[in-house]
Amino acid sequence: MLLALLLGFLLALLLAAAPPARAADVVDTALDAARLQVERIEKRLSGEAPVPGSELAESRRLLLQVQEEADRIAAEQAPELESARARLAELGPAPPTGGEAADVAEQRSGLQKTIETLDARIKLARLLVVQSQQLADQAAGQRRDRFRAALFERTESILSPGFWSELRTNAPRDLQRLRQLAGTMAEAAARTPGGAWAGLGALVVGVFALRRWLSRRLVAIAAERTPSGRVRRSVYAVAQALLAVLVPGTVAYALMRGIGWTLPETEPARVLLGSMLGAMCFSAYVAGLGAALLAATRPSWRLLPLPDEVATGLRWHPTLIGALIFVGWLVQRLASLVQASLATEVAVNGMYALALGVLLAHTVRRGERLRRRSHEVRDEREHLPRPSWMTLALFFARTLLAASVLAILIGYVALGAFVVRQVAWIATLAMTAFLLDALIDDVFTAWLASRSAPGSEAAGSAGPEGEADTPGSRLRRQAAVLVSGALRLTVALVALVMVLAPFGEGPADLLRRTDQLRDGIMVGQLQLRPTAVLQAVLVFLLATVVLRAVKRWFSDRFLPTTSLDAGMRASVATLMGFLGTVVAIGLGLSAIGLALDKVAWIASALSVGIGFGLQAVVSNFVSGLILLAERPVKVGDWVALGGVEGDIRRINVRATEIQMGDRSTVIVPNSEFITKVVRNVTHQSPQGLVQIKLPMPLDTDTERARQILLQAFLDHPDVLDNPAPNVQLDGIDAGNVVFNATGFVSSPRQSYGVKSALLFQVLQALPAAGLPLWKPPSMVLREPAAPPPQPGALPAPPATPA
Known about the structure:
Elements: H1 2-17, H2 24-46, H3 53-91, H4 102-151, H5 161-191, H6 194-225, H7 230-259, H8 268-294, H9 308-313, H10 317-337, H11 342-377, H12 388-410, H13 413-451, H14 471-499, H15 507-515, E1 521-523, E2 526-528, H16 530-558, H17 566-592, H18 596-613, H19 615-630, E3 638-641, E4 644-651, E5 655-660, E6 665-669, H20 670-675, E7 679-680, E8 688-697, H21 702-715, E9 726-733, E10 736-745, H22 751-768
Antiparallel strand pairs: 1-2, 3-4, 3-7, 4-5, 5-6, 8-10, 9-10
């Protein structure tokens, strides 16, 4: 009941937040105004007179607004058109003879007019969408061309006397306009009530006090409220960078509200104050970010691999860089508002870019010198290794800064100023991305560490992160790594988008371009939409999680209640996992819009490639399914195949894992079990045979020897009583009688050990019982034969009796 009430409340909020449908005359008026505006901008862009850069930017902004409004109108009118067509279809076709009731004919005529009006309105809106997008691209192209042309335009060098003479000539007029702007701001400040100034001053003082209190409490908060490890340092650095914006931003806001109290919105002084708030916040953020990464006063909280000497020597450089950025922006903005002369604008841009470039180059050079000095006084083991990306970045920064300073000095002020500003901008983005990347990585690492803390579910064998190596812990680690990687990739992509902002494609423009992808892209006959892809991924993940839970329940709760053995239960669970994966993939493809008939076409198209290149893979896969279904071998069986003999540990999709007697694992393709002869020792019976063939002399007391052998089998605890052990005469071989003693054990894996133990016992019992295991061979002595008589020789005398 509570859940239903909550869902109803959320639905009411969504309905209340939805924009109400606009009236037809309001929609037509908006479309007519948008059409006139598009025609006016198109005429201006197609004219021969060059369009200023500011006007191009404003035209592009208006065209993008027209595109969004027209797209919204088309989306709002489409359901009304479909509803009108559905109501007309319910009326059916008009009778050919005209015998239709008057009210039905009137309703039919009204619906047809409504359909024509809505269709024309939607077509006009879609035409405006396409036309405004094309014109916006044209305006962006002209802006880029203008930017490139101005970037490589050369003026007089600031080192030449002619440049400064022209600047002195135009200086009085520029100073007069600047005094007028200052006078306008002073008058506006004087018209502001004193109570308002007092309130704004109290606000600044209160924020300043809050900033000091938060600075003192930040270390304690980071140490007490955050997990131990690197996450404390990253959280502290982020908080330091954000706190640096608090006081300067409040001061800028107080000045904007106090001076601009009575100024109109279009007054140049009001515009200057409004933009000054953003410039002040950005400059303070740059200073705070550099100080947070250097951490000069807290070396143990430092994220960057910098020696203490480098961090201490550069501790004031971020503040100087932030202050110079704000001063340079303010001077440039003032020159633009008072419409200063060209020489003044070039001088302002050149001096600002030159000062910023020299300061950045000095910062890099001083850091390198301090680092080398620290290496000279430190032991080699105490050196902090510097990442290769930092070395490469510093090399490019030094090269670009030197080139920009040289370009400014020889007259390419626009190019040199752009390079300097771009180096500072990229450095700020890189430091911000580094800090956010470290924060994301540290947060997820700390979360995984907290899940594996003592007393949690980390009992048992620990995984790579120190957590228990269970299915739940592995899934949690995988999810943490994936989410962390996605967030870090998002940070990198956003930083890349922000790098492109000075080239004419700002973040808002790029986001608008990205928003156009919601309609998707066509790949053949399939339309891929980001929402459909995300939906497919979510469906696949949800189906995978559900199927894993079902498989776990099936293998842990249901199958143990059946009469199936452990090997069969493992085979059924594996087969169920295969089927669940196929179902999850099918659901994901259906969610992305790929129907089963399209899947069949894709499968038929891939069948040729499978037939030629994937025969072995498909054969092994099908063989694996046959092994799981027919079960000629199963998990736990002891098999012998082509010189490989051992226990089956796992039957996978493609191959089967066999553990040998030396604890090594042999991967055998599944097709080998289907196409070749396999000896399954434990297929029908898990019992193992122990057989001893013992030759003994012929005159051995066979009955007594039989009793000794049989008693040895009966006395061994691992020999089974049923079937009972037996001793038989196997035959006579080489003058020996051969005894054949057999017995059974509960597993063939015990046969070797039991046989060895029985042989030790029998070889000791038989000699002790007076039964020799062998008989010495008998020796026959005889005299050598007499040699034959020689011709002419006397006969040998007779032998004398002994």
